[in-house]
Design brief:
Blueprint: H1 2-30, H2 37-41, H3 44-51, H4 56-62, E1 69-77, E2 83-94, E3 100-109, E4 114-123, E5 132-145, E6 148-162, E7 169-178, E8 186-196, E9 201-212, E10 216-226
Antiparallel strand pairs: 1-2, 1-10, 2-3, 3-4, 4-5, 5-6, 6-7, 7-8, 8-9, 9-10
Amino acid sequence: MQIMFKLSCCSVNAIALALLWGAIGPVWAETELDLDPKIRQESPVLERWLEKIPDIAEDIRNDPSFRTRIRLGYAQFPSSDNSSGVILGVEDVFFGQTSLTLSGDYQTAFNGNRTAIGANLQYYLLPLGDYVNLAPMVGYRYIQTGNYSTDGLNLGLKLKLALSRTGAADITVSQSFISPGGANEVGLTTLSVGYAITSNLRLAADIQAQNSRARKDSSLGILLEWLP
């Protein structure tokens, strides 16, 4: 609640500043400023504001409220004799200034009973600065549990709740299907919660349910996430 209040205050202040600049900016821009050329060259922000009045509210709306994360953690597989393992992954690698991102992960149990690997493209439908966003997912995934394995196209939907614009805290829920409509269709439901402990390091927890006609499996993960 406190975080949301602070963010709201920042947004109001930014919009107020934009309105103020809209009133006095043109007058200032038309006035010859006695500035050392070095100051303008070394200040991209000042140069930008003198050339064109920025739309701060629009910038805030489109500046991503979440960040790319590189993940490493410990995994527990309750449905596979409580075997333990490791999770490696990356989340939301942005393609330039677009709403398209790439995510991928690898999970394995130390005893070889469980393996999963895959990658997905997500396209966020709402402005990246929103606190709530929705993204269709498409990619590939391979899973293996004991003697059972399957792979194929992975289609789904991701819901992201960004509790902080800096990536300090968020909740993500996704639902996808491997080989949707086929005899070996597998449903994957994932809940992920992350919270920052420093400006570039987060602690995260993942819960995943894996459902197929052959069997039902689950996994738990505790991860460290680095925000580059």
